[in-house]
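Thread: Modeling a multi-component assembly for a lab meeting

Hi all, long-time lurker, first post. My supervisor asked me to bring a structural picture of a complex we are working on to next week's group meeting, and I have zero experience with this. I have the sequence lines for every component (647 residues in total). Could someone generate the structure of the whole assembly? Inputs are pasted exactly as I received them:
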Amino acid sequence: MSRWVKLATLIFFALGAPVLAQQAKPHDYGMGAPATAAQITGWDIDVRPDGAGAPSGHGSVKQGEKIYLERCAACHGEFGESAGRWPQLAQGKGTLASHDPVKTVGSYYPYLSSVFDYIRRAMPFGDAHSLSNDELYAVTAYVLSLNDIVGDDFVLSRETWGQVKMPNQGGFYDDDRRKTEKAFWNSKPCMKDCRRPAKITGHAAVLDVTPDDKGFNDRTPRKGGVE
Amino acid sequence: MTEPTDKKRASRRGFLAGAAGMIAAGTTGAASANDKNLPPNIADWTKTLGDGVAVRPYGHPSKFEKGVIRRDVQWLTASRESSVSFTPLHELDGIITPNGLCFERHHGGIAEVDPKDYRLMIHGMVDKPLIFTLEDLKRLPRVNRIYFLECAANSGMEWRGAQLNGCQYTHGMMHCVQYTGVPLKLLLEQAGVKPKAKWLLAEGGDSAAMTRSVPLAKALDDCLIAYRMNGEMLRPEQGYPARLVVPGWEGNMWVKWIRRIKVGDEPWYTREETGKYTDLLENGKARKFTFEMDAKSVITSPSPQTPVKKKGFLVITGLAWSGRGTVKRVDVSLDGGRNWRTARIDGPVFDKACVRFYAETEWNGEELLLQSRAMDDTGYVQPNKDALRKIRGVNSIYHNNGIQTWALKASGEVENVEVG
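Re: Modeling a multi-component assembly
Sure thing. I ran the full set together rather than chain by chain. Output:
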């Protein structure tokens, strides 16, 4: 077998025959350089709910308040109440089942890591990766205190990570659409006289919040949309 | 926010009167045609030389198509760096979205990645942590696949009723292109995934460092690290030089500017799969990891931004897609879902890609309530909005795949409406 045919066979197994490919030993293309420990450390910033990946360092609620007011409050509000359309960080407890749910760190986020990891990678908005580990712990501790999840004298670190209990940790469950929405699978959907004559019950034009190429108006849109 | 509401209203009324007048008069062609270019006269462009070759080294659409652009809705978000612009679906046909019109969703603006400094790290539960350059990726065996990409929040503004008057805004967080890239399976094999691994974390190189957990089974099934779309390199807005492709699953997972894949045994529960991209139901509990995009369709024309200009023969057209497989059939209703006819699908039909459908009819000025309904090869039938709300409530934001209704009025104008 020529070298070309051998390689073509390997590529066929790799791309075209997944079942067989599991049995064949994957071909080593000799591509990619080994990642060194130092390279990995520089980029490996994720933190899991169990605290795996949390860096060394610590920060108190009091230290966090100062950082928060300087670096975060302009968008998120002095008390996490949000300034304008930026995400609200605090309050909203007991609203999730209402007509106007307020999803915040305290009312909605299931894990400390979901907050800490996000601040670490993306905040402050427009100045990512500018906080030290101690500052990260401090500002996260302050956001938790705004939500009454920790006391005013709390110090967050890897050591105290497990003490933080998020109120809505049990508020999520896995996708169950195939079970709860089973009725949407229907091999013979109705084609004729499927409903009573349809009447218009709502108009987008009445609301008039659609932008045109000239500008926008100041009507209040309905809640919802991208977050 | 510059234009006073009254003035805007007046101009909108003017448009309607104009459209109605055109239909009544039954004029042919565009109202503004210039006689000197029409037969028997010889048009200007027939008499003079045009631009030579390479005057337009990267070609752009005709200057007469300048309205065919992405648009945003400024009240939706606090800043344009973390926001969305919408594909002008109403101006397009076939199944492929032109690269410059593919909707944008950024969480920290467009990262401008220098390809010579691009690196993809694969580490975690692997035998050999590796770093790939873009050149490495391009030297590996590659595949071509056409897939739709839909943001989980597409149609998210419509849960509580008809709100945005145009299918660009109601459905334009969707595009469909051909990707060229390396199967993620092949890359993971180079690193050697350890037996206990079950999940990956995909991380972007943008200033949001977007991260999503992806089940390893999906990664090994059909995910790609893509570097080309429609033949050319990815656009910066779409993750240049490389992005994750997660066929059929919510767009947020298709991490752009991908810089890192970590292999692990549990999901990470990042902010983007907890605080966001979870589907809050009426009881206050939320579904998580709702990856698949349900079958969905929309009539792209006629629609509010493409009113009907003439009575007589009318082509109704739209797009359908399903994250669970292949679209098998699309039905169209002219009476708000009371009676249905099966539309004609024309053009290629691929797994987890858009299909284009057509339903031709005669229209004599009667009011129509236009709807379309997609069915996929798992037997899923796109539900109407009320059926969806019955199960999901109106607080979900994400995964609104309910049947869209457009009211075609006697004037030819089309409006986004709800029917009951």
